[in-house]
Amino acid sequence: MIMNKKSSERIAFFIFRLLGFSVLALLLALLGFIVYNGIGVINWEFITTAPTEGMTAGGIYPAIVGTLCLVAGSMIVAFPVGIMSAIYTQEYARDGWLVRFIRIMTNNLAGIPSIVFGLFGMALFVNTLGFGDSIVAGSLTLGLLALPLVIRTTEEALKAIPDTYRTGSYALGAGKLQTIFRVVLPAAFPDIITGLILSIGRVSGETAPILFTAAAYFLPKLPSSIFDQVMALPYHLYVIATSGTDLEASRPIAYGTALVLITIVLVMNLLATAIRSYISKNKKQSA
To answer: pTM for this one?
Structure first.
């Protein structure tokens, strides 16, 4: 009987290890494929110039700037709204039907296809509010797309903070709002950063929402205001890979664009992870 249990454990661990290495191998194969096909076009000119000759030559600088503007704008929208919403549902609202309804609708919102967000953004921000195809319309649409993820991760981060933190703060005479912003949020912030990392990774690669709200087919200049249309890496990659003037000539540029997009997401994630580690380290030292 004992041998059977040990054998079962070995088999289970072997299967788990095999699945883990399979996922890692798949990820490395995907990254290796993109790097192998795209590294040849990566140079300073490719990073710092605009596309030319029907997007079969030149660089992707306007698309890089447009992507960074849209990601930054969406986080400015999603992060504070998501955190405030999570604070309400977790710290203020009573655990009743209203909170359960909000959480169900938040989960449903997270499962809506991104193309629906794009159509909604076009109807509301582009047409009704009159923003037109612009950075602000695209950022608001991407912010709505990232909002459910920020809310859920923030709720879990707040839920993980022991109630002794709150009761200790109350015992020292602090109010509820002061306790939340001086005690609970700083303790939960490293985990809240996780939601920011996941949100950045999602919105930076979305094509459908910006297709209707912000992205331009070809616009070899930088935006001058938040009401300007922009190029963006995901849409630019889609265009040159499917409907460019010369698909064969633009294929290396497509791989190079994909490599740059992956690199930008990786750098953003590493930066957010470094901030999280720094905050966690300071929290442990002050404890």
So the answer is: 0.86
